[in-house]
Amino acid sequence: MATSSDWHPHGVRLPPLLCILSTYTLKLILLLVCSGLCARHLVVNLRLTSKRDKARKWMFWEACKAYKVSDFQATMDVMRHSLPDAAAYLEEVGYTRWARSLFPGLRYSSMTSNSAESINSITRFARYLPITMLVEFYRLTLQDWYFKRGIIAGKEQHPLTLWAQAKIEKRIRKSSNWRVYGFSETEFEVHEGYKNAKVDLRERTCTCMQWQISGIPCGHLIAAVRTLNHTDCYQWASSYFTSDAYRRTWGYQVNPLPSPSEYELPLERIKVFPPSKEHRNSGRPRDRDRIPSRDEEPIVKRCSRCKQRGHFRGDCPEPMPAPSSLPGSSSRRNRSQNHSTHENENEEGDVYGTYNLAD
């Protein structure tokens, strides 16, 4: 098992607040990062087979995507009553590994590993190629991505990315009729129907926890800054969603490789060795290193043909005997002779003769 400290001698630097989402097949454990489970794979493991249980799958997603711990606990209480087996399984897995409200790191809006699944979809045909051609496929794919996304990032004029803009504009429309009550210069109480939240501009916090976890201004913050006549609420977004960060991400370039005929390889790598002449038998290899059980006696091999010990009939080195000398062949011959003699006796002892009715 490799830890994060084993990567530093190899020049691998781990960025701060790094989070890895995976399934149960993850074998590498990094101590300095937060690892979470893919919610889509986790809901499949709940084994909700009946139609009634599948209709209650929304409980898992509501608990998984909840921003507040109180909302998470309320949904889990309902789930323990409706789906007790699924709730017990989720508790055994650990709430901190899949619930957004209890996750120790920052998952933002990434609750599944769909980004990795998209890579698998792209390489569904290329994965059957030889390793050199597969690496070249990955290189060409990255070269195309960095080129196209670099051009798009260079044309961005807005302070935030298009994805973050769409999120904020949706929350602006949703919070248009919320009521705001201020009780200090930087603290506000926002009423959202029957719910309310407290916004602190100095600490950059909101009691709904959506602003802190997602990094994008929530509706309560947008309603609060609207009372201050601040038309621009993009400054409250995380720096990871800015256009500058997007340009720095795709600002690199992947250089093409020269033609294979121009490669300079050492002589020991150019030498081609002949294929191996060892012939492997078909089927599964026999396990000759099995450890016998306690008080188990070894099986004594005895050939049924030559009656010798040490081998079976299939491995007998003696030549194949004639059919007359095979065990049991005389008895078969005697049975056939007795059968023919019995038929002759029946023919001779026939009382009635044979007559031709045509005469």
From TrEMBL:
Residues 274-295, 310-359 are annotated as: Disordered. The chain crosses the membrane at residues 20-43. InterPro entries: Znf_CCHC, Znf_CCHC_sf, Znf_PMZ, Znf_SWIM. It comes from the Eukaryota. Residues 302-318 form the CCHC-type domain. Residues 188-229 form the SWIM-type domain. The keyword Ribosomal protein does not apply. It holds the Pfam family SWIM. Keywords: Membrane, Metal-binding, Transmembrane, Transmembrane helix, Zinc, Zinc-finger. One of its GO terms (molecular function) is zinc ion binding. This is SWIM-type domain-containing protein. It comes from Centaurea solstitialis (yellow star-thistle).
